[in-house]
Amino acid sequence: MEAKDTREVIDIQVLNSELKTIVANIDNLREQIDEIVEKIAA
Predict the structure, then answer these.
(1) What percent helix, strand, coil does the chain show, rounded to 5?
(2) How far apart are CA 31 and CA 22, in angstroms?
(3) CA–CA separation, 42 vs 32, rounded Å?
């Protein structure tokens, strides 16, 4: 008797798309943080 595979099926294309969106958001936030830090340091 084999153990049943109960792992969640993941669509790699959807995952990659979501990661691209997350990375773009992170990049945007980093730019905004850099601008704020510049204003504070000035």
Answers:
(1) 70, 0, 30
(2) 14
(3) 15
Amino acid at 27: D
CA atoms of 40 and 14, how far apart (whole Å) = 39
Question: pLDDT 10s digit of each residue in the chain, 42 long?
Answer: 888 989 999 999 999 999 999 999 999 999 999 999 999 998
Find the angle CA(29)-CA(31)-CA(34) to the nearest 5 degrees: 110
- The Cα 32–Cα 25 span in angstroms is 11
- Regarding pTM above 0.85, the answer is no
